[in-house]
Amino acid sequence: MKPKTRMGYQGTGPGAITPDGCAVELYERLPVGAEPDIIAAAVPAGARILELGCGAGRVTHPLLERGFTVTAVDESPQMLARVRGARTICSPIEELELGETFDVVMLASFLVHAGDPETRRGLLRTCARHVAEGGCVLIQREGADYHTDLPRERVDPGGFTVRILSAEPVGDGVNSVRAEYVFPDATWTQTFLSRPLSREEFESALGEAGLRTDTYLTEDGTWVRAVRTEQTERR
């Protein structure tokens, strides 16, 4: 049975497609980039990490190899079936209630740019309630030109091409973004909703969830380390 997609989200190509338009086989193929190095440089060695939206384990597996303990969360059982060596939990992120905390909570893949403000608030509240006192939350943001420098493409050394084709306004500050991934033997597309957030809007969203920026980890500001506010810590 073809899975139902969320309104505004769609994916095409071989294999299973998750409700947010992600193709499982595609995400299993995509290589890891600099993410594990950025994360490892920002957190204590051997930290317990809660990875929210782990997909097929593209970042999970390198973190495990670096000696971290990872609890990997995704709403897609097909994605989680590809994850090896980590504790896995199948759940929508915004509904997650584990009753435990972690040294590090990670929200990557630009998930903080969810088109629905309530979804974004739910994601960040999940981060805040699962991070231990003295721990941190690592968040990946979109680059400043993500929605404007289009169309653009990148040819990966692995032999495939990634194209961001368009970002069309659909109202209320949200864009419908269309991406294409071209491999020698298969092509996938993904359409999803994304809300551009200025640095001020992003930091305000953190504050609503009881978090604050600790530092920007990359020069382009796409990776951020956040911590709980004093008010959150006293709850």
Write a brief structural summary:
The chain has two domains: 13-143 and 197-229, Vaccinia Virus protein VP39 (Rossmann fold, 3-Layer(aba) Sandwich), CATH 3.40.50.150; 152-194. The chain is of the alpha/beta class.
Query: What Rg is obtained from the alpha carbons, in whole angstroms?
Result: 17 Å
Residue share in helix:
10-25%
Average predicted local confidence, pLDDT:
94
Overall tally of structural domains: 2
The fold-level CATH name of the largest domain is Rossmann fold
* Main sheet: strands, sense, barrel: 7 strands, mixed
> Spans with pLDDT under 50 lasting ≥5 residues?
none
The helix count comes to: 7
Structural class: alpha/beta
| CATH superfamily label of the largest domain | Vaccinia Virus protein VP39
**Order of strands across the main sheet:** 4-3-2-5-6-12-11
